[in-house]
Automatic annotation (TrEMBL):
<dbReference type="GO" id="GO:0006865">
    <property type="term" value="P:amino acid transport"/>
</dbReference>
<keyword id="KW-0472">Membrane</keyword>
<dbReference type="InterPro" id="IPR018449">
    <property type="entry name" value="NIL_domain"/>
</dbReference>
<dbReference type="InterPro" id="IPR027417">
    <property type="entry name" value="P-loop_NTPase"/>
</dbReference>
<dbReference type="InterPro" id="IPR003439">
    <property type="entry name" value="ABC_transporter-like_ATP-bd"/>
</dbReference>
<dbReference type="Pfam" id="PF00005">
    <property type="entry name" value="ABC_tran"/>
</dbReference>
<feature type="domain" description="ABC transporter">
    <location>
        <begin position="2"/>
        <end position="243"/>
    </location>
</feature>
<dbReference type="InterPro" id="IPR050086">
    <property type="entry name" value="MetN_ABC_transporter-like"/>
</dbReference>
<keyword id="KW-0547">Nucleotide-binding</keyword>
<keyword id="KW-0813">Transport</keyword>
<comment type="subunit">
    <text>Homodimer. Forms a membrane-associated complex with FtsX.</text>
</comment>
<dbReference type="InterPro" id="IPR003593">
    <property type="entry name" value="AAA+_ATPase"/>
</dbReference>
<dbReference type="InterPro" id="IPR045865">
    <property type="entry name" value="ACT-like_dom_sf"/>
</dbReference>
<dbReference type="InterPro" id="IPR017871">
    <property type="entry name" value="ABC_transporter-like_CS"/>
</dbReference>
<dbReference type="InterPro" id="IPR041701">
    <property type="entry name" value="MetN_ABC"/>
</dbReference>
<protein>
    <submittedName>
        <fullName>D-methionine transport system ATP-binding protein</fullName>
    </submittedName>
</protein>
<dbReference type="GO" id="GO:0016887">
    <property type="term" value="F:ATP hydrolysis activity"/>
</dbReference>
Amino acid sequence: MITLSHISKTFPGTRRRQPVIALDDVSLTVERGQVMGVVGPSGSGKSTLARIVNLLERPTSGTVTVDGVELTALSAGRLNEARRTIGMIFQQFNLLDSRTALANVELPLELAGVGRAERRARATELLERVGLADKLGSHPAQLSGGQRQRVAIARALAPRPSVLLCDEATSALDPASTTSVLALLRELTDELDLTTVLITHEMDVVKRVCDHVTLLEGGRVVDSGALGDVVRRPQSPLATRLLPHPQAPVGEPVVEVTVGGADHDLVLTELIRRFDVRVAVLAGSVETLGDQRFGRLQLRVDGAPETVREALDYLAQATPERELELTRAVA
């Protein structure tokens, strides 16, 4: 759905400043219906990447393809048409204070030449969908931060886009509003079959709603993948940010396993049933990533040396059905 191929972006320097390389050979694919989280420290290129997806910022090199159309090859007129399939939500809402919520949502349709009755009906429908049916006549100053962001979401959806870009969309919200807006974005992605890219510096946002995550550092992709795959990679820079390693008691000989999508007690029961060993959980951490539960368990496995080796070999042989793997030996 979205394909960035070998994207680089360099901002020219001045007499006093050197050129700035914001993105350096970035390649990234987001499939239809996915929510991709893009994370990284300040200055890593996250916001530049978002603006390049809809060519508000043109890359220095590389290609951008959205829904089978190579945007970087389009003329200015055709690019403006293609941009209507890409909605964008910003941190500061960018609503017009002089317009009501209804008129703000109507704005992109008005600019596209849609008739008054049609755009009024569409805007009303969307405001009802985002939970603001009673705020049609309210101005932004009369709305809370969470309500203003809901108006911005409705406005972004007015032209019926297939892609939704969210640049730090919850950074200016309180925790309760963040939770409700993220839930709404996940619902709308699933309901409307959107492809959503969330630019964020908060790993909690990724944990709550994303299917995939990409880490940018210094303008380069240093890690990327489905959340369930990332947390199972022992050397992944993202793994411990999504699912921290627990701290077992000092001096205990332990092994660490990553468990996904299964009841942890059933995992231990299966291990004990198959092998004549004693298993103790020394420490553990559990997180909900998207709609799945994952855990890291640090275990002490006691028994005859040969039996313990067989049990550890079993843990190391992860299968999709069992969703269990030996992450590392900590002893």
